[in-house]
Write a structure and sequence with these properties.
458 residues; alpha+beta; Uridine Diphospho-n-acetylenolpyruvylglucosamine Reductase, domain 3; Alpha-Beta Plaits; five-stranded antiparallel β-sheet; 13 helices; globular; binds flavin-adenine dinucleotide
Length: 458
């Protein structure tokens, strides 16, 4: 069967709003067809860009000409005890659903569950639960990958990269999606995860699953000030089996008030939590009342739940915030302007105060700060209403990057570098370190055909 050509337009952008162009879109259904396409591109020296579900926020899957290869027909999901074998076009929500049928779940949970398995691996996505479980890379057990030579191999966890490379510095953060994973003794799965579709086409993946906890407590806890919220983050971070610790600033709450009138009027910040429990009767349930009092949080007005419907309601609340902020900026005709910086946790407060001060000075009220506080990875999302404000947003992001790096942080904690943040890679790594990454790229894709313009400038 020959690979199917599809309408091009819907593949020419991602959720960031970044737009590109392509000569052709192909949607192979088998690994053999992927090999055929790759060999054809190599022969004609045509560039090839790999598309997942297009929820990326950096333009990584957006083609700069040539062939766009979508994995959407790779939909298989086969769940076993402790793992699932997935076609990389399957969606995260489908994996979660299939895993739930066997009372298991996939640890990390990037907020956008319509992302594809290939996409979350290739960006080393994080999300709310990576605070406890780590980012996606850690949960990849095996990968089937086709390189630009047309060769297809399956690599399993434990298999080291079998060619020499120069290691690069690693930021002191709990997650990082900026550039290749080049640590001494790096394994193949670790190198391919986070490589943003620039080293090979991942067609299938074995993903690690965990048994569902006996019970789960989730909640949205409100505070009268952001400083009290920051105190609580520091106090609560070490609570056993706390698997999610998300922060929302006052502008995020204001953004949501229209649709969520239950947000207390006096609330100026909030934390969202999830904790694995041994049972519904777990003493942890009562411990939260005490914790709220100690940290001066709103008691009665905060939201807690033990039922699946409660957990879904709170996740929907958090997802709606991300999705509607992105939507608002795009409806105003601008690209999404958001930071994806993270710092070592000891600098969490310092970075937050810095963001707040500069945002209020430059774009008062025209931004939200929310995100993965447990990983010191809050996103600053700008809401520009004019060309001038969009310019200021971009300048602020560029200003934040060197400050973050000076604190030992990363310029891309979970979204990757893509095409819109290639300048930031140079803020984080030396020319020599970038050259070390390019050596690996040249080794696996000598003609530089795959994912042109992603991670590295053309
Ligand atoms: C509302 C919203 C909330 C979000 N929240 C989070 C969050 O909490 N955490 C987080 O980490 N991200 C988040 N994201 C970003 C996004 O969901 C992730 O980056 C996701 O991993 C992208 O997956 P995708 O399938 O859409 O990939 P795409 O955008 O299609 O592609 C992303 C990259 O992966 C590569 N790729 C895709 N499939 C393959 C493959 N099979 N083989 C090789 N390369 C491949 C592409 O070439 C590209 O470089 C959010 C996005 C939105 C819109």
């Amino acid at each position: 069967m020959t690979p199917v050509s599809a309408d091009i337009d819907s593949y020419l952008e991602d959720a960031s709003g970044y737009r590109g162009w392509a000569d052709r879109v192909v949607r192979p259904g088998t690994v053999e067809e992927v090999g055929e396409i790759v060999r054809g591109c190599a022969q004609s020296q045509t560039s090839l860009t790999i598309a997942g579900a297009g929820t990326g926020l950096t333009g990584a899957r957006v083609p700069h000409g040539g062939v766009l290869l979508s994995l959407e027909r790779f939909q298989e999901i086969r769940v076993d005890k402790g793992q699932a074998w997935c076609g990389t076009g399957a969606l995260l929500k489908d994996l979660q659903k299939a895993a739930a049928q066997t009372k298991q779940f996939f640890g990390p949970n990037p907020t956008e569950d319509s992302a594809s398995i290939g996409g979350i691996i290739s960006t080393n996505a994080g999300g709310a639960r990576s605070f406890h479980y780590g980012a996606v890379r850690r949960h990849v057990l095996a990968l089937e990958v086709t390189f630009m030579t047309g060769e297809t191999i399956t690599v399993r966890r434990g298999e080291p990269v079998n060619f020499p490379f120069r290691p690069i510095r690693v930021p002191e953060t709990s997650k990082n999606s900026a550039g290749y994973f080049l640590r001494p003794g790096a394994e193949w799965v670790d190198l391919l995860a986070g490589s943003e579709g620039t080293l090979g086409i991942i067609t299938h993946a074995e993903m690690q699953l965990y048994d569902e906890p006996a019970a789960l407590l989730s909640g949205v806890i409100f505070f009268a000030s952001d400083e009290e919220t920051l105190d609580a983050i520091e106090q609560w971070r070490e609570i056993p089996e706390l698997r999610l610790l998300e922060f929302l600033d006052e502008h995020s709450l204001d953004f949501m008030r229209g649709n969520y009138p239950a947000i207390p009027a006096a609330a100026r910040a909030a934390l969202m939590i999830e904790q694995n429990l041994a049972s519904d009767e777990d003493s942890e349930v009562d411990a939260w009342a005490e914790r709220l009092e100690q940290q001066n949080a709103f008691g009665e007005a905060s939201w807690f739940g033990l039922r699946a419907a409660d957990h879904e309601r709170f996740r929907e609340f958090r997802h709606t915030l991300s999705a509607s902020v992105t939507d608002k900026v795009r409806r105003r005709g601008f690209h999404k302007f958001s930071s994806d910086f993270a710092v070592p946790f000891r600098y969490h407060r310092e970075l937050y105060r810095h963001y707040k001060r500069r945002c209020e000075e430059v774009l008062p009220g025209q931004y939200t700060i929310f995100g993965h506080a447990g990983d010191a990875n809050n996103h600053v999302n700008f809401l520009p209403a004019s060309k001038e404000q969009s310019q200021l947003s971009e300048e602020l992001l560029n200003e934040f990057a060197p400050f973050v790096v000076s604190l030992g942080g990363t310029v891309a904690a979970e979204h990757g570098i893509g095409k819109v943040k290639t300048d930031l890679l140079k803020v984080m790594y030396s020319a020599d370190e970038i050259e070390a990454m390019k050596d690996v790229k040249r080794r696996l894709d000598p003609e530089w055909l795959l994912g042109r313009g992603t991670i590295f400038d053309l």
